Amino acid sequence: MAPGSLDVNDTASVAAAAETAHDSTVVLNNAGITNTKPLLEITLDEVRALYETNVFAPLAVAQAFAPVLEANGGGALVDILSGLSWLATPSAYPSTKSAFWSLTNGLRIELAGQKTQVVGAHLAFTDTPLIAELDVPKADPRDIVAVIYDGLEAGDLEVICDDISRGIKSALSGPIEALYPQFAPGN
User: How far apart are CA 62 and CA 17, in angstroms?
Assistant: First the structure.
């Protein structure tokens, strides 16, 4: 394994990274793969792969780095979530982000005693290799990082990083038809 490399789906690699980065005070917990096949067409093995990378791997990172953060005064764990953490689509990907969001909220409670700030960072389309093929407006990763660090410094528990995620979050308090027009009366 090269210095600084990490395979989030390999617990030995995660443990080695935590040992190597024993002086960490901030951990950016970001892992993700996507699959947009419809729920009735995706195989269960494909769904398992999504959950392995998008849910179980970041939990393994949190478990491995929690003692490191505690040893260094508490620090911060920043879980990179998605605007889709709050929204369903007819694919399995959003459910993985919802599950990771729920784990983030649980980790926040569990790690409060060691004074670790757990931040859930919700973002949509960011110009990364994961969505390189999508023809949509994308946020600059540097802007996203700046928003996250501003939230960290402010002591925020949730950071809504972009306009798309802010729009989704604000629509949650409105009628369901705002998010899902197919449920409007008369449809």
Answer: 12
